[in-house]
C-alpha cells in the first residue's frame, strides 16, 4: 500500500513535470515566432525603391523644366538603384500633371517636378482640384534660376529699351509667349508690363518648347523664358537674348544686362525647381529621396547646367522647400491681384 501510494505520487509528479515542460515550450515558441519573422521567415516589406520611380513634369517635353527633370532622373537613379522615368503631363497651367501626383499612392513612386506655378496657382484659381499644401510632401528644392528675355534674331528689337519703346508705340499689339498661365514666363512678363508701364499680350502654351517654336517661327514677339529652355538656342544664334531677369548679372551670361539695368529699375523675377511627393508618403522614403537629390545636384550633369545656364543649385531639406515656396506665394500674390490675372 505504501509502495502504491509512492508510485501514484511519483506518477502524478512526473505527469505534472511533463505538463510544465510542454507549457514552457509553448511559451518559448510564441516568443520565438516574432524573432524568426523579423529574421525574414515571414514576408518582409521591400526596401524602397523596389520598382521604377516616375517624375511627372506638368509641361511638354523639351522645355526648361523637362531638362531639369531629366537631369534629376538620370542622376538620382544611380543612387537609388532603380530606373527613374519622366512622364510629361502638360496643360491647364500645370494643374493636370500636378493633380496626377496629388492623387497618386503615397509610396514614393510618383513624384512631381514643381515650379513657379506651384506657388502662384492658389492666387490664380478660385478653386483647385488639390491643395498645394495639404496634398503634397516636400522633398527638396533642387535649384533656383532666373529667366532670360529672348526674341527672334530677325526682330528689330535689340534691347530692353527697344522692347519698351515698341510696346508703348503699339499698346496690346506685341505679344509674349508663356508656358501656361501663372508660370514664371507669364508673370515675369506681367511684372514687366506693370513696372515698365506697357501693355503686351500674353499668349499661353502648354510648355516652353511649343512657345519657343512659335517664337522661332515669328508667330510671337518675345519670351521671358527659362534659361534651361533657351540657352542652347541663344548660343547657336537661333534666338537673340536681351537681358536676364535676375537682380544681378549672371556669370553664365556676363555680357547680358539685367532687366533692371536695361531700363526697368527694381525689376527681378526668379524661377525654381522643386521635387514633391504625395502627402502621407512615409518619412523614410522622403529622407531617401532627399538624400539622392542632395548627391545629384553635386553631379557633373548639374555642374554643367550650373555653369552654362546660371542655375543656383540647392538640394536643401524638405523644410527649406516649404519655406521658400511660402515666400514665393506671398511675393506674387499682389501682382496677380493688381494685374487681375485669374483663371476660372
* Uncertain residue segments: 1-16, 22-44
CATH superfamily of the largest domain: Bordetella uptake gene, domain 1
- Biggest beta sheet summary: 10 strands, mixed
CATH class of the largest domain: Alpha Beta
Distance linking N and C termini: 103 Å
CATH architecture of the largest domain, by name, is 3-Layer(aba) Sandwich
Named CATH topology of the largest domain:
D-Maltodextrin-Binding Protein, domain 2
The mean pLDDT is: 87
Number of strands: 10
> Which range does the strand content fall in?
15-25%
Classification by helices and strands: alpha/beta
Radius of gyration: 30 Å
Name the helix and strand elements from N-terminus to C-terminus, one letter apiece.
Answer: HEHEHEHEHEHEHEHEEHHEH
Oligomeric category: single chain
Written overview of the protein:
With 344 residues, this protein is an alpha/beta fold. It is built from eleven helices and ten strands. Strands 1, 2, 3, 4, 5, 6, 7, 8, 9 and 10 form a ten-stranded mixed beta sheet that branches. α2 crosses α8 (227-235), α2 (64-80) crosses α9 (283-296) and α4 (116-124) crosses α11 (318-338). It is globular and about 65 Å long. The protein starts with a helix and ends in a 6-residue tail after the last helix. The chain crosses the membrane at residues 22-42. This is Tripartite tricarboxylate transporter substrate binding protein. It comes from Bradyrhizobium cosmicum.
